[in-house]
Amino acid sequence: MTPNFPKCSRLGLAALVVCMATACAENGGASAEGIVSGTITIETAALSGQVASMSAWAFSRDGRVVAYLSPVEGVTCQQVSSYLGSSSEPYDPGDMFLEGYCNLFLLADYDGTDTYSAWDDSDLFITPWTFNCTLDSGEFIYEVRDQVDWDYYWSGRYWQGYPLDWTLSLSGGEGGPIFIETSMNRYDGNFIYEEAGEDSAVGEVNGTTSATWCEELSQLSFF
Predict the structure, then answer these.
(1) How far apart, in whole angstroms, are the C-alpha atoms of residue 169 and residue 73?
(2) What is the spatial distance between Cα 95 and Cα 39, in angstroms, rounded to a whole number?
(3) CA–centroid distance for 187 within its chain
(4) Which helix (DSSP H) or strand (DSSP E) does residue 196 occupy?
(5) Which pLDDT tens digit goes with each residue over 8-27?
(6) Distance (Å, rounded) from C-alpha 75 to C-alpha 58?
(7) Coil, strand, or helix at residue 216?
(8) Residues 101-149: tens digit of each pLDDT
């Protein structure tokens, strides 16, 4: 099962600088140095989503980096891997999300010149970051949508989007934690499975976190 990412027009990408950080997490929690946190507000709906990287897992190979940040403390490497697609069956991600919060997915390629870019040259991944936000009360229900797509869907309002303004610095890896420093502001996105429209958002999200190495992520189709 892979998350449904929004289709959008292509935007320019910012250059990124690799930096070093200290501290690591042994259980997928945020590093002792801090977390990636903040709040975004969907301007068309007067709804807000908080960000808090209480669990963070990552993997890299041949310059490609995948990371997943959840507001739920104690989310495991296996849970993240199953949700992102290593499982052959749809995965119930209810224990990985919180009402009123956003989960963050990072997928980036490193080109060897201290610059990171979106994963490919299509219009699917516009920037390395994708937000997945459960913005009101609900639960993940196993049901069919689009007539053939059986999966777990949030019963409330579910917003997906990406930052228009962002910076990103990464270091570490090679079997150890990957240190992530980022800042974001202004977002494009929409409410999935609602009437089509642009539901932009504003708000500062920033910080530094240590994402624990997750070998199971190597099973994803991204690699």
Answers:
(1) 23
(2) 21
(3) 14
(4) none
(5) 222 222 223 222 232 333 44
(6) 13
(7) helix
(8) 999 999 988 765 555 555 554 444 568 899 999 998 999 999 998 777 8
